[in-house]
Amino acid sequence: MRLHELPVLAHMTYDENDPYAVRVAFTDGEYVYAEWRLDRGMLREGMRREVGEGDVRIWPGVHIELCGEADFTVGEESLARFLERTYEVVPEGEERVDVDGLVTRLLTAG
Questions:
Q1: Rg value, the chain, Cα
Q2: Is residue 2 part of a domain?
Q3: What total of structural domains would you count in the chain?
Q4: In 4-75, where does DSSP find H-type helix?
Q5: Could you tell me if residue 1 is inside a domain?
Q6: Where residue 85 sits, what CATH number does that domain have?
Q7: Whole-angstrom distance, CA of residue 30 vs CA of residue 84
Q8: How far apart are CA 9 and CA 20, in angstroms?
Q9: 62 domain-assigned
Q10: Is residue 49 within 8 Å of residue 60, measured between CB atoms?
Q11: pLDDT at position 45
């Protein structure tokens, strides 16, 4: 099996209306290799110890493995700063989800 390393950018966004998730697009600036919604708390915990199972695993250094196939390494300091800002917007324990709005969006999608 031959492993390939390819430098990509991890473009992360946070929306307070989806407070538990961080959206991340792995891209080279032109092509998006993967786009995922990752658990915000899992990202933070993954900076300290290995977490996750199934499709997403995260461990220190910050490695993010998707579907057991792709292993992305994210800059630890950049991720820590990003997560700190998300917790300034929506502090841990103050996450709220508009369930009625979510159900409406799901029923009208597609």
A1: 15
A2: no
A3: 1
A4: 40-46
A5: no
A6: 2.30.31.20
A7: 28
A8: 22
A9: yes
A10: yes
A11: 97
pLDDT in tens, 50-104: 999 889 999 999 899 998 888 888 899 999 999 999 999 999 999 988 888 778 8
- Are the beta carbons of 86 and 13 closer than 8 angstroms? no
The parent domain of residue 21 ranges over: 9-109
Q: Which two tokens stand for residue 81?
A: 């700063």
CA distance 18 to 3: 35
pLDDT of 109 higher than 80 = no
Q: What is the pLDDT of residue 81?
A: 97
Cα–Cα dist 45/63, whole Å? 12
Maximum Cα–Cα distance across the chain: 48
Query: What type of residue is 82?
Result: F
Q: Whole-structure pTM over 0.85, yes or no?
A: no
Residue 3 counted as domain residue: no
Phi, psi for 68 (deg, rounded to 5) = 70, 10
Q: What φ, ψ does residue 39 adopt, rounded to 5°?
A: -70, 125
- Which amino acid, one-letter code, is at 74? V
